[in-house]
Amino acid sequence: MPRFTVHVRDEWLTVPCKDASYSINWLGVEALKRYAKNKPDNGGIPNIKDVHFVARRCQGQGLLDGDDTIEDVLEDNDFVELDGNSLCSTDLVNLGRSLYKIKLTPEAEKKVEQSRELLDTIVKEKKVVYGITTGFGKFARTVIPISKLKELQENLIRSHSAGLGSPLSPERTRMLLALRINVLAKGHSGISLETLHTMIQAFNASCLSFVPEKGTVGASGDLAPLSHLALGLMGEGKMWSPKSGWADAKYVLEAHGLRPISLKPKEGLALINGTQMITSLGAEAVERAESVARQADIIAALTLEVLKGTTKAFDSDIHELRPHPGQKEVALRFRSLLDSDHHPSEIAESHRFCDRVQDAYTMRCCPQVHGIVNDTIAFVRNIINTEINSATDNPMVFAERGETISGGNFHGEYPAKALDYLAIGVHELASISERRIERLCNPSLSELPAFLVNEGGLNSGFMIAHCTAAALVSENKVLCHPSSVDSLSTSAATEDHVSMGGWAARKALRVIEHVEQVLAIELLAACQGIEFLRPLRTTTPLEKVYDLVRSVVKPWIKDRFMSADIEAVHRLLVDQKVWNVAKPYIEKYCTELLPESRPSSPTAFSLEPPPSPRKRVRLE
Fold first, then answer.
1. What are the Cα distances from residue 474, in Å, to 12, 430, 434, 451, 515?
2. Spatial distance between the Cα atoms of 91 and 83, rounded to a whole number of angstroms
3. With left for phi above 0 and alpha for psi between -120 and 50, is residue 497 left, alpha or beta?
4. Which end of the chain has fewer beta carbons closer than 10 Å to its terminal beta carbon, N or C?
5. How deeply is 365 buried, as exposed, middle or buried, from its count of CB atoms within 10 A (0-12, 13-18, 19+)?
6. Does the annotation count 546 as an active-site position?
7. What is the C-alpha to C-alpha distance for residues 512 and 508, in angstroms, rounded to an integer?
8. Which among 130, 414, 546, 589 is annotated as catalytic?
């Protein structure tokens, strides 16, 4: 049965379709039903039949006519069509998760054939062109006989398969292979359609080469990891598939009815020249960074409630005076979770008229600190998505001009610098989170039991959980040193400046994982703090977050093995479950556009303060 994925308000919904002759309007209504089904107040949709909507294709954003039949304008979304121009980081990560298979667009196939025809002409006419009829790097002036051009390409792959370290996970190897296919589909690499189709068949069967994670300097592209990727496709080295596990590549391919690729002139170079290792890991880093950044806002809002902070610092007028997009977005999320008119909080009301004037920076400045992280992620996403759809070979094949041109698109400086920046930006979420954990655990700052446990002394509670968070933050300080500021000359000074982007991508992922883990500790600590404020309740969305955490971790009554609890909550963050619980309430607040509530508080000064209840009685 065909299945179609429909995007409704940033949420992806799978809709099965028994009959592809149904209309686009039917598909839209079914998607809206699924969207509204489990949302508060039906997601702000009172009557689905009365909703006016427009439908667009996800790729290309083409507007769809509601009266058209599904079979006429859409295809079963088991496949993602690659053309070298429209892949994004989200789609690439989903390809890595094996959610889709791959096929080429007809336009891409035509471009690939045209560029291959030009290369065949070059070989036939015995022209001297780098990488096609010559050696590589320092050997660029060595002309190779036509009889040995196949051996030249095979030797290139074998000699460059010199990486070390643990292999990339199957998910990351799928991303790497999918991204290389996408770049080759642009039609500027000279790959043959036969070889490209074999690569696609290998991807769709999840026949994945052994690709060590270390060995690239990020120029001339990711030569070592991409060589290992190609080596398996040649039937050499090791390969993995769900069907066979790890085995000799030749036998893995045979088990899936596939033949090893036989390299034609330039095809070895076309398979390994590019920034796909840096970029595919960078795509995962961007997606995970965005996920943890928006969940950090939810966790910080819960901590603010437990520490009895004020919402005054999130007033929209403050943030309009410094209108950075990320800052405004974070402040809006805080208001959507803590707004007293939308979500009354017994905890907030319990200290409404306390004598504290303002909160510590770790709570008051969340929009400013978390905000720049959001803007950093947006900046990096733009660079990564551009790189995903860029031709990064050398030489480049221009079939329409009838020539090949040597250039430097293989240099990884763009994604390398961007991912160093991403690591620095996202780390700040852990830095500020660790300080909030300190405030939760310190009784002089929280008015809660020391280390969030009864019978302190007999029990240590969150004492060492906080130490773990501090250790992770300290590790990140070292990992945030930019790798792209370094360069070592290689290939006998032919490649005399390199990006070190492979390490930039790998350490960015490590930084993001540490951020996730620190925030998991904060979320655990905030939920434990709630236990000491009962029977008072926080806002509805934050109670839902509390319930989610308690579905995997019980309250801390006395000391117990804690690592498993941290790992369980970390998994909630990785799976975006904290975001999914709070998201409907955030969306509802943003779409209703109701007046912003501004309850009176000692943290604000007004020339005409509201009369106290006692004064109102006297007036009456």
1. 37, 10, 10, 21, 11
2. 13
3. beta
4. C
5. middle
6. no
7. 6
8. 130
